Each structure stands twice: as C-alpha cells, then as structure tokens.
Amino acid sequence: MEWIFKPWPWYIGGPLIAFVMFLLLFLGKNFGMSSNLRTLCTICGAGKSTRFFDFDWKTQQWNLLVAFGAIIGGWIGVNWLSDSIAVQLHPDTINQLHQFNIKSAGEAYMPEELFSLQALSNPKVLITLSLGGFLVGFGARYAGGCTSGHAISGLSNLQLVSLYAVIGFFIGGLAMNHFLLPYFF
Amino acid sequence: MFKSEAASWFRIYEMFQFKSFHMYGIIGSALFFGVIIIQVIKRLKLKSAFGETIQIPNKEKSVSRYILGGTLFGLGWGLAGACPGPMFTLIGAGFIPILVVIFFALIGTWVYGLFVKKLPH
C-alpha cells in the first residue's frame, strides 16, 4: 500500500480517466468539464444577458456533481493520500524555471510564485492568473470543449474535429510556453 | 487528477517543453482505453444503467472554430497551467489562487456567450 502515497504513474492516471469517461457514458452522460463553466454562468444569471446561457441549468446538475467530486478528490489526495506532494521534474525543467525565478520548481506541487496567497499581492501574478483563466474559459467554449471533452472524449470517439481542437491546444500551449511565458516572469 | 500530477502547473509546463513523457502517457493511455471503450459500446450497442442505448453525440463540423478556439484555450492552458477539470481539483487541494483563474474562466465563458454570433465558427 506504500505506492498509494507516492505520486501515481501515468499508467494509473490515464486509465482512471478513461474509467471516469466510461462511468459517465454508462450513466447516460458524457465527459466534459468545461460545460460546468457555462452552467455556473447560467446559475449566476447570465441567461438574462444572452441566449447562450438561457437554458435550464438543473439538467446539468450531474456534471456539477462531477466537478464537486473533483474538488473532493483534490482534498483527499492532498490530505490523506500523500506523504510528499513535490513534483519530480526533469533537471532541465528545474534549471529553466530557476532562470525565470520560479525557485519552487522541483520542491512543490504548484509554483509558489504563482499559487501561494502571498503571490496574490503581486499585480503581475494577478494578471497572469486572470489572463490564463480568461483564455481557458473563452477558448474552451469557442472550441466546444476542453481537454476532457476533446482530447479524451472526442478523440476516443474518433472525431476529426477534436483533433483540430487538440492541434489548436498545442499551437497555443507551445506558443505560450516557448515564446510568451518568459515575459510574464 | 491530483495524485497523477495532471493538476500540477509544473507538469503542464514540462509537457510543453517535451521534457517528460508523463502527461503524454496519461493522455495516451486514457485514449487507448477510451477508444476501446467507445468502440465496444458502439459495436455491441450497450445500454446505460437506465436501459437506454448509449448515445455519444458527434461534434459539430467546422475547422476554424476548433483551431481558433483551441489555440486560445492552449494559450491559457500554457499560462495558467490548469484546464477546467484540474481547476476544481486544485480548489480541494487548497490552492486558493486557483479561484482567481476560475473566476476569470467564468468571465471568459460569459464573454464568449456575448459574442457567440459575431465570431467565425
């Protein structure tokens, strides 16, 4: 049982994600997390401003429950199932991040320079987090799905358009990672 | 999500640097089983727990919306290091600043909803 407290290897995580998709299909639903963002907008009253949000959010309650499960999962993972949560990175990655002044690379789960409470008082960090969030929310709806809806569900169902979306994810991600990210630190 | 480190900003960074197989392993193995699961469901016309035949909706046909939207999503993913699933996981794990990311993801979703008719799809 020792292994359960260590980080889980990809061949555990990946099949578990596929299993979640199977469970949702078996329950007559489908796997797509970003739809919850739309549902949350509707709950906040966005249906009044535009028809895109004018639907009965109660039909999406099951998906909110999946998101709630993800919150619980994160809590259990950090509180009960981990002795150390530092992510073991490739030495090159650590070096590179140190150059950007991300000193927590290799010693933490999330960069403290972005995801600690102290970091929030830095306007640059706030801009990074807000812009990142905005693009994820806008892009996910524009592309009709995110990593779960396209890269997992869509590609599993051999949807050509999901391949376009995933190509887009990587065009954007690589451009950000290699060319733009250095300007944010 | 949390235990396989798919929710870690560092893992996403490393994935785009091509320095680790980890994230590709997760997505690849999920896809390997995902394709088998969906093929089995379709071939055998399996029924759901409620006795209905499982319907898997096809995505709407288009190229531009997927490439454009996908690229914008990717820019955000590369910056915030979290896609919509792990965002929720990170709340539970106690990383408070993720709430800023989620708040702006909601704003982004809402702005898309406002301009949905004006954007090329």
Structure described in brief:
Chain A is mainly α and 185 residues long. Helices cover 59% and strands 0% of the residues of chain A.
Order of helices and strands of chain A: HHHHHHHH
Multimeric state: heterodimer
Query: Portion of residues in helices of chain B?
Result: 55-70%
Bin the strand percentage of chain A: under 5%
pLDDT < 50 stretches of chain B: none
Largest sheet of chain B: none
Number of DSSP strands of chain A? Answer: 0
% residues in beta strands of chain B: under 5%
Number of helices of chain A: 8
Radius of gyration of chain B: 18 Å
Q: Give the termini separation of chain B.
A: 32 Å
What general form of chain A does the structure show?
Answer: globular
The number of domains of chain B? 1
Features:
heterodimer; A: 185 residues; mainly alpha; 8 helices; B: 121 residues; 5 helices
Could you walk me through the main structural features you see in this protein, from its secondary elements to its overall organization?
- The complex is a heterodimer of chains A (185) and B (121).
- Chain A has helices spanning 10-26, 35-43, 61-79, 91-99, 112-115, 123-142, 147-156, 160-180.
- With 185 residues, chain A is mainly α.
- Chain A has a domain at 1-85.
- The radius of gyration of chain A is 19 Å and the shape is globular.
- With 121 residues, chain B is mostly helical.
- Chain B has one domain (9-115).
- Helices cover 62% and strands 0% of the residues of chain B.
- In chain B, helix 4 (84-92) runs antiparallel to helix 5.
- The longest helix of chain B is centred in the first third of the chain and has 23 residues, at 22-44.
- The model of chain B has no long low-confidence stretch (mean pLDDT 94).
- At the A-B interface, helix 1, helix 2, helix 3, helix 4 and helix 6 of A face helix 1, helix 2, helix 3, helix 4 and helix 5 of B.
